[in-house]
Amino acid sequence: MANLVYYVAATLDGYIADQQHQLDWLMNFPLGDDATPYDEFYQTVGAVIMGAETYSWILENSPEAWPYADVPAFIVTHRSLSVPEGQNITRVQGEAVDIAAQAREAAKGKDVWLVGGGKTAAWFAEAGELQRLFVTQIPVVIGAGIPLLPVSQALSFSTVNQRVLKSGAIEFIADVKIVSEAI
Predict the structure, then answer these.
(1) What single DSSP character describes residue 118?
(2) Is residue 26 located within the same domain as residue 41?
(3) Are residues 123 and 38 in the same domain?
(4) How far apart are CA 174 and CA 35, in angstroms?
(5) Residues 104 and 18 in one domain
(6) 151-163 pLDDT tens trace
(7) How many structural domains compose the chain?
(8) Which of 24, 86, 96, 109 has its CA 20 to 30 A from that of 1?
(9) Phi, psi values for residue 118, rounded to 5°
(10) Residue 26 · residue 34 · CB < 8 Å
């Protein structure tokens, strides 16, 4: 079965974007050539899921082309969002379990990348649908912003792999386990 993978960069203090939803802290940080190549990760992806805020941010910041044109995309939203013509983008709502099943089927055996944001990732995690976390922790503190994974119940991890990069960033890859008691 395909995994739902939350592949994301976060600050040392646990944010994926600043309060204005900007990524300057990440764009100005040189990861170096020892980081896991994005292209290598992306080859494992058969579909993507994201929330409406992440979708809108990508459209605003990638005006030249939709970056996921070669895989089906699922946008979790109740809003009526515009979709670039000719793209395989589906607006979805409902239960996380059903959306995850739909994305897995579309991924045809490959993994499903949960692009973001943090609240969307937490929603899938709390439904037991997030199997893997791949976080590149950037040694930057921004003080406030969009949280990495704002869950309302504890998560634990197994098969943890950590790697310190020459840049000082840390790659953290783990399988996600739900802990039954609330935080």
Answers:
(1) H
(2) yes
(3) yes
(4) 17
(5) no
(6) 998 899 998 899 9
(7) 2
(8) 86
(9) -60, -45
(10) no
